[in-house]
Specification:
5-stranded antiparallel beta sheet; single chain; 6 helices; globular; about 40% helix
Length: about 160
């Protein structure tokens, strides 16, 4: 359920009390573990944790470079962990650690979905968020981008 909220506070106010409690609990864990430099904003209709445009303006879509996000969807709460999506070793680390929690995993490429707060391994979400400092994330992003093609002058 995409939100048009301009602020995180507005977004949280739109939620039912049960969803607000769950999203707020995950948000607290994210903020407590988020490496320095990332910024919490609303982007793409969800709470996003990004590299500020002032730090890294050359993104492919003009939006701040997303590192993680949190959203209340129609049937679940989603936590997007871009570092898990972008790096196979991190993905395997996450899958192994998740399995050890004994909780049922519902995951896409970067999106981990939960129906209730009790389903969430909050400590693991915090560890996953805390894994990659901002400068390292920017470097990883730059290394993943295709090299720019040189344009040739007409007539050459």
């Amino acid at each position: 359920m995409k939100s048009d909220a301009a602020t995180v506070e507005q977004y949280l106010e739109e939620l039912t009390p049960e969803r607000r409690e769950a999203v707020s609990a995950v948000r607290e864990v994210v903020l407590a573990n988020l490496p320095a430099g990332y910024e919490e904003i609303m982007d793409f209709g969800m709470i996003a944790y990004v590299v500020p445009l002032e730090r890294y303006p050359k993104t492919y879509n003009g939006h701040p470079l997303m590192y993680a996000a949190l959203a209340s969807e129609k049937r679940y709460i989603s936590v997007h962990l871009m570092n898990i999506y972008a790096d196979e070793a991190s993905r395997q680390w996450f899958l192994d650690r998740y399995e050890a929690t004994g909780k049922r995993l519902n995951m896409g490429k970067s999106c981990v979905r939960f129906r209730t707060l009790a389903d969430m391994p909050l400590e693991l979400i915090g560890e996953a968020v805390g894994r990659v400092p901002m400068e390292e994330w920017v470097g990883f992003y730059e290394a993943s981008r295709p090299p720019k093609r040189r344009s040739r002058a007409k007539g050459s």
